[in-house]
Amino acid sequence: MLARVKVQDLRTPALVVDIDDFDRNIDVMRAAHPGPRLRPHVKAHKTTEIARRQAAAGHLDFTCATPREVIGMAAAGLGGDLLLANEVVDPERLEALAALTDARVTIAVDSEVTIDTAARAGLREVLVDVNVGLPRCGCDPEDAGRLADHARARGLTVRGVMGYEGHIVGVEDRALRSAETEKSMQLLLRASELAGGGIVSAGGTGTWDINVWANEIQAGSYVLMDNAYAHLDLPFKRAMHVSATVVSVSKGGTVSSGGWAVADCGLKALGMDHGDPVIDGAIVWSVNDEHVIFSPEEPVAIGERIKVWPSHIDPTVAYHERMQVARGDEVVETWEVDLRGW
Amino acid sequence: MLARVKVQDLRTPALVVDIDDFDRNIDVMRAAHPGPRLRPHVKAHKTTEIARRQAAAGHLDFTCATPREVIGMAAAGLGGDLLLANEVVDPERLEALAALTDARVTIAVDSEVTIDTAARAGLREVLVDVNVGLPRCGCDPEDAGRLADHARARGLTVRGVMGYEGHIVGVEDRALRSAETEKSMQLLLRASELAGGGIVSAGGTGTWDINVWANEIQAGSYVLMDNAYAHLDLPFKRAMHVSATVVSVSKGGTVSSGGWAVADCGLKALGMDHGDPVIDGAIVWSVNDEHVIFSPEEPVAIGERIKVWPSHIDPTVAYHERMQVARGDEVVETWEVDLRGW
C-alpha cells in the first residue's frame, strides 16, 4: 500500500488547494448561475483540471486571457465555446487560433486594427470590447456600432459585446458597488444596442451576483479566491494557500517576544501587486525573493509548516508548476498548472 | 540563409537582454572585483548561460538561493564552489545536495536545527549566517561562536560567516549607505572573530564597492539591473527589458490628448513588489494580469513594440521560460531560464 502523502510532507513552497472549500465554491456558483450564465475565466487558475471541474458543474463556455490558454483548453477537450477576452495583434498566434479544429474561438476587438488582424488571420467570430469605465482596452460605447459594422464588412460574425467593470469589483460597500455596476452596464447595454449580436459579457467575482445586466458573467477568482476578494461580502471561501516551511526563528519568534520567524515563501511564489500575503495569527512584515518574514502570536518551530494566503491569486498561480490538492491534511491529487505563458 | 530575427518580431511579452549593456556590466565588475572577490548571486537571473559568462569573466564561485539553483549550476559544470546562502531544512533536498559529485556545496546555517539537519543530510561545509540588521535569517552576532562550535562538533567545516545588509543596499545617499554598511559589517566582523573560518561574505549590488569589510561580495543584480537599483549612483546599466506589443489605444493615446495605450506585459510577466515598471517617455498608470496601461508623450500605434523596464528583476525573470538576447535590434541568441523553481 502506498504511503499517504500529507500536506506537511510537501516540498515547499507548494500551492495547496483545499478540495472541500474548492468544491463548495463550485457548488455555490453552480446553484446561483447554472449553465451559460457563467463563462468562467481560466486566467485565475491556468489549470485545465480546474476547468474540467467547472465544466462538470455545467459551465461549458470559458473565458481566456491569452492564446496559450485558448490552445491549451482546446487540447484538453474544453474548446466548446472559448472567448479570448483580450486584444491580440500577433498574426502567427491568431492564425494558430483560427486553425484549431476542436474549438469555437471568439476574440475581443476594440479597433479597426484588431478587427482587420483577426479577419486576416481567419478568425470568424468576435465580441466588441467596450470601455465601461476601467481605463484599459475597450472602445467608446458610441463606437460599438461602427466597429460591429466594420467587423461584419470583413466577414466576421459579431456575437455581441463585452465590458469589464474592473474598477468596481473591489468596492467594499455593496450598495455602492451595485450602483456603480449599473452605471457601467448602462454603457454596455447602449453599446449592445448599437452593435447587436446578443451576448452581453461582463462581470467578475466582485460583481458576480450584482451584475444583473450582463447575460454572462466572466468571474474566475471565485473558485480559488484570495485575500483581496475575501474583504468583500462573498459566499466563496479562500481555497488555496501556499504551504511554507519555517526556516529561521529570531529573538523568541513571536509578537510578544519582539521576535520574528522566516518561512520559505517569497516573491517568486506570490503575486505581490495586491500587497503582502496574510498568515493567520501573525503580523506579516515583508516578503523577499525566497522569504516571508512574520511575527506570530504563538511560537512556531523551525521545520513547521504554515499557511501563507496570497493577496492576488492570478499572478501567484502563474509562478507555480503544479497545485497539490488536499482533503484535510492528506494530499489526494496533483494538478498541473498547464496553461502558463502566452 | 536564415532570416534574421528582430526584437520587433518576437512573440510578446518577451524578456530581452541587451548584450552590449550586459557585457559592459560584466566588464565593469570584472575590472573592479576580479576573481573570488565577487561571488555572483544567481537568484537575480536563474540562468546558467549568464553564470557561464560570469565564470568566463573570472567569477568562478557562486551564490544560490534555492536547492534547485545549486543542482542546476552543478549540472551545468559550474559547481566549483557554490554557496547556498539560505536556510533549508528539507532532508530530501539537503541529501540531494550532499550527493552531488560535481559540486562543492556550502550551506548557510543560523541555528542548531539547521546545523543538525545539514549534518544529518551529509553536507560537509557551512557558513554561519549572521543578522547584521536586516530582520530575516541570521543569528545574533554574539551567537556565531557557539553555533560554529556546534557545527564543528557535528563534523562540519565552518568556512566563515555571511550577513546580508539588505536593509541598506537601497539607501540613495551614498555617504549614509557607506556609514550604515560599516555599522553592519562591524557586526559581521565581530561574528567572524567568534566563528572563525576566514570567509566574510556579504554585500549586494547597492554596496558592491562600498562594502570593503567583507572579503567576498554576493552581488547579483548588477548584471541585468532594474529600476530600483537604477536610482543609485552605480556604473551598471539596465540590460534587460520586457518587450511588449501595443494592443489598444484610447482617446488619442497620449498624455496631451488625455488618452492612454495598453500593451501586453502584465502582472504575470513582471515582479511587482518594487512597484510599477517604467516606460521611457510615458506615465505608467497601472498593471493588470496581462496589461500595462500607460500614457506616452508621443503617440504609439497598435502593433508597435515598447520597452517595459521592470522595477525588480529577480521576480520578473522567475516568470519567464527564456530570455532573448539582442545586439541592437537583432536577436542573436536565446537563453533558457533554467534555474526556476525550488
Walk me through the structure.
The structure is a homodimer of 342-residue chains. Chain A has 342 residues and is α/β, with parallel strands linked by helices. The first copy, chain A, folds into two domains: 7-12 and 237-336, Lyase, Ornithine Decarboxylase, Chain A, domain 1; 19-224, TIM Barrel (Alpha-Beta Barrel). Chain A is built from nine helices and 15 strands. Chain A has helices spanning 19-32, 48-56, 67-75, 91-98, 112-121, 144-153, 174-195, 227-230, 313-317; strands at residues 14-18, 61-64, 81-84, 105-109, 125-129, 157-163, 199-202, 216-217, 240-250, 260-263, 282-288, 291-296, 305-308, 322-327, 330-336. In chain A, strands 1, 9, 10, 11, 12, 13, 14 and 15 form an eight-stranded mixed β-sheet that branches. In chain A, helix 4 packs across helix 5 and helix 6 packs across helix 7 (174-195). The longest helix of chain A has 22 residues, at 174-195. Chain A is elongated and about 70 Å long. The model of chain A has no long low-confidence stretch (mean pLDDT 97).
